[in-house]
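Review form for a predicted model. The reviewer records the input and the model, then writes brief findings.
Reviewer: anonymous (R2)
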Amino acid sequence: MHSPETSDEAAALRVALRVRETMLADDHASRALGIDIAEVAPGRALARMRVRRDMLNGFGICHGGLITTLADTAFAYACNSGNHVTVAAGISVDFVAPAHEGDELSASCEQRTQQARTGVYDVVVRNQHGHTVALMRGRSHRLKGRQVFATGEPGPQS
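Model under review:
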């Protein structure tokens, strides 16, 4: 027999997985950059990207904007995981180490707080050796009454 909490957790995970499927269908930016949404769960996501030659800047390291895009992508999937259409209200990124051609970067995002329509999320970008490349904090804003996928029920109000 399953406890109600376990059942609720399983239902929330099913929603997060369906959100990933729905978002991926039209996520042309992630597809173009080779970003894989490896994991999703309520308030969490893991995105991965291999650094290609066309992602290098004039110093031969991965362009910071592309590292930020990877982090922002994990943030997007994490903050939409509850089927509330949610957009970024702001981000702050700190680059702590370079990424090089061939590196496998992973961006792990976790919700820190969700109050009404505003959330705060932290993202850590690491290379294949587990070394931290960048840290990002994102603030999210839920759009009132909008769902990522239709459930047949009225959209979330907050």
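Findings: The chain has three helices and six strands.
Further findings: The chain has a mean pLDDT of 94.
Recommendation: see findings above.
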